[in-house]
Design goal:
About 30% of the residues lie in helices and about 15% in strands. The chain has 9 helices and 14 strands. The strands form 2 sheets. Strands 1-8-2-3-7-4-6-5-9-10 form a 10-stranded mixed β-sheet, with helices on both faces. It has a 4-stranded parallel β-sheet with strand order 11-14-12-13, with helices on one face. The longest helix has 17 residues. Bound molecules: adenosine monophosphate and magnesium ion.
């Protein structure tokens, strides 16, 4: 990746406007939330979401949390049942993320949900996060603003230490008050998917005991088979065998192509959508070789899961 000049933005109207402009043009901006600094990108923009994975150097596409300013905005993307409404009313804005079914016509990039039918959504309380989300008026995907495998950032300097030269800007809002990731609740019945800034006891005081184990659809790490298309998947294919459909990469004859120009960011942005579309054809899927570097590693990780025997 080319090094870029990462701007440090002040926590004032001008800095917020600049952060919103970065989001609007599909760029990446680090911003403070009450939990940790988030690495924000427009959750509807597949390229922006792919850039988040590229910037962090994540070796796999785990789904990202979508940030919105309030419950009303959240309901444009997620279906809230009574329990979810109770939790939102009791806690939001807060360090609490809810994993809920997507609404139809949500408009989010499938990369943000890793192709799942659910979305993790949060309303952060930090005043700067609130101002950015309100001014942007769109969903912001934001994992922690650190390199994959490194410690989560609770100061702008931590963000810059990892991501200076890689992201467009960071809004310097000082230290993060909670300093722990958000608590994640999801599944039917609701279960704890990740402990975090809101204590389980507080949540159980509102909705009663949480389920002991998350059901398969919502538990991260149990997702391998969920990613698998119905038909068989054959990797490193330079052409389709009779009866197969071919998912291409780079200049080649194919049914769908992840990126004709061989751009891994574009390929990542297309991955889940193309897999869904080929799967709908109901034929075995052959996939062209993808270089195992940069985002190619995360793409190959997903493709290997899709191709794994089951
Ligand atoms: P991060 O954004 O890095 O703080 O991590 C997001 C966490 O939320 C990860 O542990 C994900 O596995 C989890 N997550 C996000 N979306 C979903 C989803 N749709 N279903 C289950 N877990 C999710
Ligand atoms: Mg993280």
């Amino acid at each position: 990746m080319n090094r870029i000049d990462t701007q440090t933005l002040h926590p004032n109207a001008q800095g917020i406007a600049a952060a919103v402009a970065v989001l609007g043009r599909g760029g990446l901006v680090g911003f403070p939330t009450e939990t940790v600094y988030g690495l924000g990108g427009d959750a509807r923009n597949g390229r922006a979401v792919a850039q988040i994975f590229a910037a962090k150097g994540r070796p796999s596409f785990n789904p990202l949390i979508v940030h919105v300013p309030d419950l009303e905005a959240a309901r444009r993307f997620a279906q809230f049942d009574d329990t979810a409404l109770q939790l939102a009313a009791a806690f939001w804005p807060a360090a609490l993320t809810l994993v809920l079914p997507l609404v139809t016509g949500h408009g989010l990039s499938p990369l943000v949900t890793a192709g799942l039918e659910t979305v993790a959504i949060r309303v952060p309380a930090h005043p700067l996060a609130q101002q950015i989300l309100r001014a942007f008026d769109g969903p912001v995907a934001a994992p922690s603003a650190n390199l994959s495998g490194r410690i989560s950032p609770t100061k702008a300097a931590h963000v810059l230490a990892d991501l200076s030269g890689i992201i467009d800007a960071v809004v310097d809002g000082g230290g993060c008050p909670v300093g722990l990731e958000s608590t994640i609740i999801g599944g039917e019945p609701p279960a704890l998917l990740r402990p975090g800034g809101i204590a389980v006891e507080q949540i159980e005081a509102i909705i009663g005991p949480l389920a002991k184990r998350a059901n398969q659809i919502t538990a991260p790490g149990q997702l391998a088979s969920h990613y698998a298309p119905d038909a068989s998947v054959r990797l490193n294919a330079n052409q389709a065998h009779p009866g197969e459909v071919l998912l291409g990469f780079g200049p080649m004859q194919s049914d769908l192509n992840l990126s004709v120009s061989g751009d891994l960011i574009e390929a990542a942005a297309h991955l889940f959508d193309h897999l869904h579309r080929l799967n709908a054809l109901g034929q075995p899927i052959a996939v062209a070789p993808i270089p195992d570097k940069g985002l190619g590693r995360a793409i190959n990780d997903r493709l290997r899961r899709a191709a794994a025997p089951r």
